[in-house]
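Notes taken during the Thursday session

The instructor put the following on the board and asked us to keep it in front of us for the whole hour. The protein is DUF2089 domain-containing protein. We were told not to look anything up and to reason only from what is written here. First, the residues (118 in total):
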Amino acid sequence: MHPAPSTCPVCAQRLEVTRLGCPGCGTELAGFFQQCQFCALSAEDRETLNVFLASRGNLREVEKHLGVSYPTARQRFTRLLDKLGLGEPAPQVDREQVLADVASGRITPEEAQRLLSS
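Then, after some discussion, the predicted structure tokens were revealed:
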């Protein structure tokens, strides 16, 4: 069985579950249904989540099981949290402070551009 797509192939909007069917008797239900937040994860992300849960949150165990370095295991877990909407919000850059730092010479214009575009 193939995983259900999570985004529209035409406009890239998030798809909604609107129809459910019983393979046993053929009954169908139509409406808008809440979608599983884990169902749209990639196979790699689901594996990371499963290993994390099985190891009771121990990233060293995740590292060993996946055969990756600790920083890679941590990066995969951070990406997983972001995809689930549980990650840390990105810090807000104070535009006025960045411009003041450029004017005073504390940072270069290139550094300011990088800060303001992220």
